[in-house]
Every structure is written in C-alpha cells, then in structure tokens.
C-alpha cells in the first residue's frame, strides 16, 4: 500500500471510529407516539405563573445578609405564611438550556445535543407550554424560542429583548429583569382594551413564564458574592411581588392562580456553572397559590444520584397537575405529592396518570427494539409486567374510594415509575455492547496493521473468506439495522486482512518519566521582542479594571487583542529561520494571544511549557551528539543520505510527544463581552490549540536536529495514539455535566483524530518554522 493510499485509508478508519461514539453513546433517549394522559378530576388552578431566576443559588436566596435580614423579604413572607418551599436538586449539566428543558418539559439533558449546540434540542419534544391552552413568555432570546418552535399550533407567544442587551460588561445587568417586569405590566394593561386577548387570558389552562436572566449575567460578570448579584436578588423579589399584585388584580383575586418560583441552575463562587458542585445544582423552589400546600417545608432532596434517568427533581408533573394539562409526553419526572393541597383521590389519580405516561414511553421503546432485533436474540426487561397488572387491578377498584386502596395505588404507581425508568435505560443502551465490541475489534486490527508496516514484516496470511462479510451483512439486514451499523461491524473484516495472527500490546507506562534538567542558557531573549508581551499584560489589566468599574470594554484593549490574534499568524515569519530564533518568535507570539485569553494564573502555563520544550530539545540534541543547535536552520534542505534508521530512542521521543498533547466567558472579555457562542467558542478553541502548536514546533525542531525519519516517527505516534484512543473509548461518558461529557469526548477525539490532527499541525508548524517573509523583497520559500 503506497503512502497516499495508507493515509487515505487511515483517515477513513479514524473517521468511522470517531463517528461511532455518537451511535454508541450519544443517541437521543426521546421517543414519540405516546398517548397523553389526562386526570379525570377538575384541577385546582386555572392558570400558572412561572418565575425562573436564571443562575440563582439556593443559599443566596434563603440565607440572610450580614445584618440578619432577608435579601428577598416578599418571598420570605410567602415561605412563612402561605406557601410551600424546598431546595431542588437540578441535574447536570447545569446550563440554561438543559435546565429549562428539565423544568418545563420534564426530561433531563438529551445527550445527542452534544454535537448540536445548546440553544435548541436536537429532537422535538413535548412540554407544559405545548400542552397548555395558551402560554405567554417574556425573557431571553436564547431560551424562549426553543419552546415556541417545538409547540404544536400557534399558542406559545414569546417576547424577547435584543440579544445585544446580554452584555457581560453592562453597567447594570439587572435591567434584563426590569425589562421583563415592565413588559408584563404593559401587556396586562393592554389586554383590558383588547377583547380577543382578554378572552384568551380568561381561559383555563394558561401559563405565564417570566425568564429572569439578570442574576446569571451579573453572576458571570461580578461573581455571586458581589454587590451587583445580591442587589439583583432584591430587585427580583420586588418584581415578583409586583407581578403577583398585577395578576391578582387582573383576575379579581379569584384564588385560581398558582405561582412557582425557582431557578434553572446555581453558580460557583467564581461565576461559572455547568458541573455538579452543590453551588451549581442546589436551587430554590417556592410554590404558593391554588392547589398548593401552605406554610410548610417540603424536602425535595429525593436522590442525589446522577445516573441516567434517576434522581434530581423537575417541576413539569407538578405544574401539569395544578392546571389540569397532560404531563409532557417525554417527561421522566415524578409528581411531588407533598406540594399538593388536594384530596387523596386527586393525588392518586394524578400519580396514576404520571405512571402511565412514563409506562407509555417504555412500551414504545420495547416496540422499537423488537422491530430491529431477531426474536430469538431479543432479551426483554421483565420487571415491569407484575406491577402493571397490579396497577390495572387497583384502577378498576378506584370507585371504592377507601383510604387504603388509594394509598396502595399511589405506592404501586411509585414502584411502576421506578421500574419503567430502569426499563427505559435498559433499552436505550441495548445495542451498546454489540457495537462497542465491533469497534474494539476494528481498533485492534488497525493498530496491528500499523505495527506491521513499521516492522516491515510479511506473513503468509490466508485471506478472510468473503462469506464472513456476507454473513455479517445478512445478520444486520434481518434486524433492519441502521446503515452505520454495517460500517462498524464490517470494518474489522478488511482491516484484519493485513494483520498477523496474534497481537501483543505492551503495557503503557503509568506516569511521565521526569526529564533531567540542567541550566538553561537564556541569552536569546531580546527586550524588543518582549514589548508585545508587556502590551498584552497592560491590555489584560486595563480590561479587568474597566469592567470592574462598569465602564465597558475599552476600545483600545479590544483593538490590541484582535491585532495580537491576527498578527500571531505572520509575525514569526519575519524572524530568522535559525532554530532558536524562530522558536522564540513563535513562542512569544502565541504567549501574547494566550495571555489576553487568560483570566488568572493559567497565563503562566505557556511560558513554563515553552521552557520545558527547550529543555527537551537540548536533551535530544545531547543524546544524538549532532551539530550545535544554534547553527541549525529550519529552511535548509535536508540531505536524504543523512537520514538515519529508526532506533529505540525514537519510540521514547514519539511517546513524549503523545503525552504532551468549564465554560467561563471571562476568558474572552478582552475581545468581546456581548454573548456570542460561536466567536467565544472559536477563541477558546484557539486557546486550547496553542499548547499543541508549541509542542508540535518543538517536535519539528527535534526531528530536524536529530535527523529522524518523519514517516516512521509518524507511524509510531499513530500506534501510541490508537492505543490511547482504545483506552479512552471505554471512558466516554453519556451522563454528567457538559464538562464531564465534553472532557471524555475530548480525550477520545484528540487521540482518535491524531492522523488528521498531525497532518494539519505538521503543515502549520512547517510554515511557521521554515518560511520567512522579507519585507521589501519577494517572499523566499524554503522547503525541507
């Protein structure tokens, strides 16, 4: 196999391996085709008002200030006199979109969203808003549209402020909440003169949703312990009190309005969220009004286990039962009976509807899996049948209306719900072992073949019969398997054609070998080259000071930051191509970019890494005893006759290279402060790549100074990367925070895509190290 074909095949194999994790780990758990479940009893409320204070921590709301007074006196009075309250445990990832989906739709984060972004769910879903007669929403353009988009019909109305108002450098982010309160007041006032709107507002099963983003924005910009964040809590409290007065007056104090005040997630002390720290997962829940208990504490710390479809607490069953709409079809939440102030009969009927609604999802899942699995291979989940029969028996005897019967029915429903949720998880991961085994077989086969190429060993192998592929294809065809299943299962067949009859995998070293250090000669640094670093330090300090004083992002800092980013790509090309001179120029340019993308001590990482890379270069040069490093020129043509054979030391060099390689918006404040996920994400991605480029430039230097064979060295790195990828394949997570999920995917993807990654970085580092632009002359192109 020639070199071009080898790289094309390697690229194809690694793309397949990479895509496989999304079919194995990240398929959507949502199903469709269920029947909505109604409670055959009148609901206690005609309408629901939902307040969601985005980013509000439970302790920030409930704990008094240093003077012992409450930061939210109105909500405190609700807790003491006429409401029920608790601390709800939100599920990770503690982000705004999944948090609101859990609150309003009743299911936890759809893991297939990992490749689709976070503003919209990748699969259509049902919600309390969709089941309502009418829903009016006010708040952020990042949250509200996804609920209107998924609604059937035209009964979810959204009112959002411009996206530019979500500015982390704003002098007062609480204006986002003030905007919502003002818009609601104006809307209710205008309804008095609009008969069509007035009639809609007086219908039953209506929902009013007020999304309050000020706390989240102030928390990111100033931290949750800041004066701005704590004062924002008081503003929200006053706004809630005013909104309750507006609704009560509008509806004539009819006692048919239910209120729920909660948060989608909390926030750490340093102003971030997304993981599973209690400051991020513990949120307040206060409910009062029609159908709700009064003046008692309800514990909602049911189960803090964050396994798939277990634990946590979402509010969709509660909100649905209050206004008499079906629980969202995809909800996996359990109705918290302790919050309801109603008869035992109503509670039993509501719990029964909750159980059947989850059971419907289980039945659809079973049907789908039976249709794609041969009958003699299908292994059903057995625990569900007995509970369902007992539940049906109790349902037939509900007219007895005796306390014991209703109580037992509730207990049977709770048992059924728990078992149905286990069954959903069972069928969702039904094919995971089968697909995982196929991918592992392909991994081992490919790695074995690469080892053969390196050793240049030939063995007389008998071709695997074509019938193997036909048998596998026929088996998948009978099960109506997706197209991607054919790729994962058939890939090992041609791969193993090139492999020896056995595979030996040496144990990987468990830790890094500590590199020997000796004095580092630092005569290369010039004061003139440090000016840009000093300028970036000034930009970072001035930006931080300006934002702290609420003066916005300085234009000078923004211009310098973008200029530093842009110039980092060509400034190194102006310097000499001598090894140390060019490396120094590259490092200083990259360190400047990293500096303006830093929020604290992590800015020290590139200089320390660069120092370590210089030590590595010196060590390798001493080991091979080649020419003086100061005389080596990247642009010189390499004498092919001087390229030496592969040695054991080269495996060590490849291994060292393989080893070297939470959302906080503050990292990009020097560039922009208005929330823009794509630009912010791109800047953060470049920040992540900078250390890789530093290591790759060092590797290029070692290759030139030690006269290594680039092709053989590349294959060694590829083998090591594939061994690491196989290890990380088993560590991929489809549960937990975006940080946990993203980290597990990142580890797998980085080593999995090493073929592509190395080729792209090789081209980039070759240009950075060997090309030079001469001002006023034609650009000289130097090739190795």
UniProtKB/TrEMBL annotation:
Gene Ontology, cellular component aspect: endoplasmic reticulum membrane
Limits of the GPI ethanolamine phosphate transferase 1 C-terminal domain: 422-500, 528-737
SUPFAM superfamilies assigned: Alkaline phosphatase-like
InterPro entries found in the cross-reference section: Alkaline_phosphatase_core_sf, GPI_EtnP_transferase_1, GPI_EtnP_transferase_1_C, Phosphodiest/P_Trfase, PIGN_N
Record's keyword terms, sorted: Endoplasmic reticulum, Glycoprotein, GPI-anchor biosynthesis, Membrane, Transferase, Transmembrane, Transmembrane helix
Single GO MF annotation: mannose-ethanolamine phosphotransferase activity
GO terms, biological process: GPI anchor biosynthetic process
Coiled-coil stretches: none
Protein location: Endoplasmic reticulum membrane
Segments passing through the bilayer: 6-26, 433-455, 467-488, 494-518, 530-549, 555-574, 579-597, 684-702, 714-733, 745-769
Pathway per the UniProt entry: Glycolipid biosynthesis; glycosylphosphatidylinositol-anchor biosynthesis
PANTHER family (UniProt xref): GPI ETHANOLAMINE PHOSPHATE TRANSFERASE 1 (PTHR12250:SF0), PHOSPHATIDYLINOSITOL GLYCAN, CLASS N (PTHR12250)
Family classification: Belongs to the PIGG/PIGN/PIGO family. PIGN subfamily.
Biological role: Ethanolamine phosphate transferase involved in glycosylphosphatidylinositol-anchor biosynthesis. Transfers ethanolamine phosphate to the first alpha-1,4-linked mannose of the glycosylphosphatidylinositol precursor of GPI-anchor.
Protein name according to UniProt: GPI ethanolamine phosphate transferase 1
Organism: Pygocentrus nattereri (Red-bellied piranha)
């Amino acid at each position: 196999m020639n070199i071009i074909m080898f790289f094309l095949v390697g690229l194809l194999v690694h793309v397949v391996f990479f895509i496989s994790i999304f079919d194995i780990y990240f398929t959507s758990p949502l199903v469709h085709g269920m029947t909505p479940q109604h409670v055959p009893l009148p609901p206690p409320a005609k309408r629901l008002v939902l307040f969601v204070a985005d980013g509000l921590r439970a302790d920030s709301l409930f704990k008094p200030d240093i003077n012992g007074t409450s930061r939210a006196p109105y909500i405190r009075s609700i807790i003491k006199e006429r409401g029920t309250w608790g601390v709800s445990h939100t599920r990770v990832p503690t982000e705004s979109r999944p948090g609101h989906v859990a609150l309003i739709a009743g299911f936890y984060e759809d893991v297939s969203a990992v490749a689709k972004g976070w503003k919209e769910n990748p699969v259509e879903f049902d919600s309390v808003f969709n089941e309502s007669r009418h829903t009016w929403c006010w708040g952020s353009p990042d949250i509200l549209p996804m609920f209107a988009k998924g609604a059937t019909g035209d009964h979810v109305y959204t009112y959002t402020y411009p996206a530019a108002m979500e500015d982390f450098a704003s002098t007062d982010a609480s204006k986002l909440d003030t905007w919502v309160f003002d818009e609601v007041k104006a809307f209710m006032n205008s309804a008095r003169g609009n008969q069509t709107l007035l009639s809609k507002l007086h219908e039953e099963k209506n929902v009013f949703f007020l999304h309050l983003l000020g706390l989240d924005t102030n928390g990111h910009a100033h931290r949750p312990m800041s004066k701005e964040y704590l004062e924002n809590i008081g503003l929200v409290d006053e706004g809630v009190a005013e909104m309750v007065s507006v609704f009560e007056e509008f509806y004539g104090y009819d006692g048919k309005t239910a209120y729920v005040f909660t948060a989608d997630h909390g926030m750490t002390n340093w102003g971030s969220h997304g993981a599973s720290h209690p400051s991020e997962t513990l949120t307040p829940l206060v409910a009062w009004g029609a159908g709700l208990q009064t003046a008692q504490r309800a514990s909602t710390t049911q189960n803090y286990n964050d396994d798939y479809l277990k634990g946590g607490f979402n509010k969709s069953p509660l909100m649905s039962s209050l206004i008499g709409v079906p629980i969202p079809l995809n909800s996996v939440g359990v109705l918290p009976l302790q919050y309801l102030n109603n008869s035992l009969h109503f509670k039993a009927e509501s719990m029964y509807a909750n159980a059947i609604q989850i059971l419907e999802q289980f039945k659809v899942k079973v049907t789908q899996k039976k249709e794609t699995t041969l009958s003699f291979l299908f292994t059903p989940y057995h625990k569900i049948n007995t509970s369902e029969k007992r539940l049906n028996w109790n349902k037939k005897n509900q007219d007895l209306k005796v306390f014991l019967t209703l109580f037992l029915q509730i207990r049977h429903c709770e048992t059924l719900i728990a078992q149905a949720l286990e069954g959903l998880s069972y069928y969702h991961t039904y094919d995971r072992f089968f697909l995982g085994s196929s991918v592992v077989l392909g991994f081992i086969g490919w790695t074995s073949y690469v080892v053969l190429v390196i050793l240049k060993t030939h063995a007389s192998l008998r071709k695997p019969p074509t019938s193997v592929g036909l048998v596998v294809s026929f088996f998948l065809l009978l099960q109506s398997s997706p197209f991607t299943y054919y790729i994962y299962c058939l890939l090992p067949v041609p791969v193993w054609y090139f492999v020896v009859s056995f595979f030996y995998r040496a144990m990987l070293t468990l830790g890094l070998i500590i590199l020997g250090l000796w004095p580092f000669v630092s005569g290369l640094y010039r004061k003139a080259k440090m000016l840009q670093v000093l300028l970036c330090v000034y930009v970072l300090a001035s930006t931080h000071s300006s934002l702290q004083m609420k003066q916005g992002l300085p234009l000078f800092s923004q211009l310098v930051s973008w200029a530093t980013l842009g110039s980092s790509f060509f400034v190194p090309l102006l310097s000499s191509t001598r090894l140390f001179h060019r490396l120094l120029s590259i490092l200083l340019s990259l360190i400047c970019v990293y500096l303006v993308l830093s929020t604290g001590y992590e800015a020290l990482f590139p200089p320390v890494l660069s120092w370590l890379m210089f030590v590595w270069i010196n060590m390798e040069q001493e080991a091979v005893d080649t020419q003086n490093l100061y005389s080596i020129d990247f642009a010189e043509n390499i004498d092919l006759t001087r390229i030496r054979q592969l040695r054991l030391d080269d495996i060590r060099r490849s291994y060292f290279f393989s080893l070297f390689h939470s959302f906080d918006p503050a990292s990009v404040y020097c560039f922009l402060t208005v929330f823009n996920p794509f630009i912010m994400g791109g800047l953060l991605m470049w920040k992540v790549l900078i250390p890789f480029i530093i290591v790759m430039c060092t590797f290029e230097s070692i290759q030139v100074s030690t006269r290594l064979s680039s092709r053989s060295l590349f294959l060694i790195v590829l083998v090591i990367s594939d061994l690491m990828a196989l290890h990380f394949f088993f560590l991929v997570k489809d549960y937990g925070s975006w940080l946990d999920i993203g980290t597990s995917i990142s580890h797998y993807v980085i080593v999995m895509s090493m073929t592509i990654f190395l080729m792209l970085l090789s081209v980039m580092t070759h240009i950075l190290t060997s090309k030079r632009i001469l001002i006023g002359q034609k650009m000289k192109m130097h090739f190795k």
